[in-house]
Structure prediction request, 361 residues.
Amino acid sequence: MDFTKILFKTNSFDVEKALPDGVVFCIKDGTIQWVNDKAAEIFETSKMNLKTSNINDFIENALNLAKIAVSCDKAIISKMVNKETYFEMTAKEYENGYVLDFRDIADNKYSNSETKIEDTSVSKNKNEFLVKLANDFKSPLQSIVGFSQAMADGLGGNMSEQQEKYIRIIKKNSSDLMYFTEKLIELSKTENCLQKPEMKTFDITSLLNSIVRYNEQLCKSKDLRWNVIVEEGIKNTIINDEEILRAIIQNIIEVITKAVEMGEITINITIPNEELLNLKHLPVKNYVMISITSSSLLLSENDLELMFDPYKIIDSPNRKNLLRAMTLASTKNMVQQLNGFVWIESKILKSTVFNVIIPQR
Prediction:
């Protein structure tokens, strides 16, 4: 394999010397097939030795980190075996292997494990602090929503047309802020797995039907139609966390219903095939896939890029979609807690599909 052509589609310069990072191509069992000069330098060995080795001999848990980096499309921190040396690693899947890029962390942010643990601990403590303050945020907001509704219903006496208008504005804005606060707290809770999964047996079809009933009134007011399709041969009973799965599906439905006023929402329950499981880096065993399709939610490629990343979207032109990104980031965290995978497919001017794969047991 001429890997230099794969990287740059050209032979106009020496790729091995031009690349600033260490680059490794390994097949999916970890066997190294190609490296550049920088990789040999940072791993402190010869290129020949690297090409007869396994990437796990040099980087701790390298293949699992590669799968995570591919699935989240982000750089992650990797560590050398038996050394307190850290790299920023990115990964791209290519045919039967991974292209791994290793970059020195110049600021030594992760130069020792104690610093790394400390940073993780600080992040977790901040999230726990926010979750503990949940009632301090929500209680006054609930009072504002409740009293404004009571005044709108006339319990405080007759109001002028102008006063009714102001009360409606207060109720709407306080309700929106209440929802935003709930999603922010949910994101904090899921980022550090503050809600532990409780595995039990439940009927997945009954769960989905109860979610449909819960959203039925809202969908009627918006002229949205429901359709639940269960693939023939599906075993309805699975062993997983029913409440976390309920929150996952409800979040996706809320993302759809907040964005559209009409159309059809179809929920399909299927068994994913082996090829799809391999593509999503999931072990081939019993999984169930829930696909939620909206016929009227139309997304562009720019929309899809930051759908699960509220931290990037806040500084982008799509900042208006921050709440959606927070909701989907929480959803992704919860799916990962259940050892599953979530992604979105958009068919231009046709439909958008939210796919969730979780273990049946």
Q: What stands out?
A: The chain has a mean pLDDT of 80. DSSP finds 14 helices and twelve strands in the chain.
